[in-house]
Automatic annotation (TrEMBL):
One of its GO terms (molecular function) is NAD binding. PANTHER family: 2-HYDROXYACID DEHYDROGENASE YGL185C-RELATED (PTHR10996:SF178), 2-HYDROXYACID DEHYDROGENASE-RELATED (PTHR10996). Pfam families: 2-Hacid_dh, 2-Hacid_dh_C. The lineage of its organism: Bacteria, Pseudomonadati, Pseudomonadota, Alphaproteobacteria, Sphingomonadales. This is Lactate dehydrogenase-like 2-hydroxyacid dehydrogenase. Residues 51-314 form the D-isomer specific 2-hydroxyacid dehydrogenase catalytic domain. Keywords: NAD, NADP, Oxidoreductase. The keyword NADP applies. InterPro entries: D-isomer_2-hydroxyacid_DH (IPR050223), D-isomer_2_OHA_DH_cat_dom (IPR006139), D-isomer_DH_NAD-bd (IPR006140), NAD(P)-bd_dom_sf (IPR036291). The keyword Oxidoreductase applies. GO terms for cellular component: cytosol. Belongs to the D-isomer specific 2-hydroxyacid dehydrogenase family. Residues 114-284 form the D-isomer specific 2-hydroxyacid dehydrogenase NAD-binding domain.
Length: 316
């Protein structure tokens, strides 16, 4: 590649105009998502030592091949908190730092989780469509379900899970499951099946890893039962989508609200067309304020790397 005076960074996905402008001030940017396969393969084959950073997000991540191919790589900076699509073991072996943007998105994610609960049980989206279609003049909208008094189960009581619990406690009893009990005023259940059996609404807020992949399967959904609902603001891989679709179609659960999907942005037709499902396009952290804060944290990590300092928000 042509000799350049500034370090090079690979950008794996589009970002806000603010973040992209700031990245351009610091690096020569290679927009990986705009390259055709041949151009991507050339970078992998060349192993350009000038490429010192990869900037990505949680649902795109970074392929192992890039980490393996780039001898000058110092950082994979993730715009988000999900790191399941970055091989931390490989990065550690190669001496590559991995950073995220923790805490600043907790409130937005929790707000959306509660919003999805309310919208799902009160059928807000179908009610909106009912009015827009002029159907109100022909009769009343069907009755929905009450939110207050429901039993809420949270899978994963980390920082985001705690924020969700604090909000939902105003509506009804909250319980949770996780690796161990915590010093919180909510009931602990030892596993997801027991939690589901004792919940009306099951909210997923756990990390995505080998232990949680397809954690919500047919067994968990059957424990939740035909009056139960699933809300997923964690990662798509936590839910076995085939099992979820079957449970919805067979009426073995009442409904689901999903912000994340196994193969996003692809969403199975069976979910897109189901009247029992509320869908949002991975927008849990999608506010102007939080995305600006996340961008600033990405830049803090990159600036630390450029200065030879420790990453302020490092995973490894």
């Amino acid at each position: 590649m042509m000799s350049i005076s500034r370090p090079t960074a690979i950008q794996m996905a589009p970002f806000s105009a603010y973040l992209e402008e700031e990245l351009d001030r610091r690096f020569e940017i290679i927009r990986w998502f705009d390259l055709d396969p041949a151009a991507q393969q050339q970078i992998l084959s060349t192993g350009d030592a000038a490429i010192g950073a990869i900037v990505t997000n949680g649902h795109v991540g970074c392929p192992d091949a890039l980490i393996e191919a780039l001898p000058g790589l110092k950082i994979v900076a993730i715009h988000g908190v999900g790191f399941d699509r970055v091989n931390l073991d490989l990065a550690k072996r190669k001496g590559v730092g991995v950073s995220t943007t923790p805490n600043v998105l907790n409130e937005d994610v929790a707000d959306l989780a509660v919003g999805l609960v309310i919208a799902l049980l009160r059928a807000v989206t179908p009610a909106d469509a009912f009015v827009r279609a002029g159907l109100w003049e022909r009769g009343d909208f069907p009755l929905a379900r009450k939110v207050t008094g429901r039993r809420f189960g949270i899978v994963g009581l980390g920082r985001i899970g705690v924020e969700i619990a604090r909000r939902l406690a105003a509506f009804g009893p909250v319980a949770y499951t996780g690796s161990k009990p915590k010093d919180v005023p909510y009931a602990f259940h030892p596993d997801a099946r027991t939690l589901a059996r004792n919940s009306d609404v099951l909210i997923l807020a756990c990390p995505s890893n080998e232990q949680t992949r397809h954690l919500v399967n047919r067994d968990i959904l059957d424990a939740l039962g035909p009056q139960g609902y699933v809300v997923n603001i964690a990662r798509g891989a936590v839910v076995d989508e085939a099992a979820l679709i079957a449970a919805l179609e067979e009426g073995r659960i009442a409904g689901a609200a999903l912000d994340v999907f196994e193969q996003e942005p692809h969403v199975p037709d069976a979910l897109r067309t189901s009247p029992r499902v509320l869908l949002t396009p991975h927008i849990a952290s999608g506010t102007e304020e939080t995305r600006r804060d996340m961008a600033d944290m990405v830049l803090q990590n990159l600036d630390a790397m450029l200065a030879g300092n420790a990453l302020p928000h490092a995973l490894i």
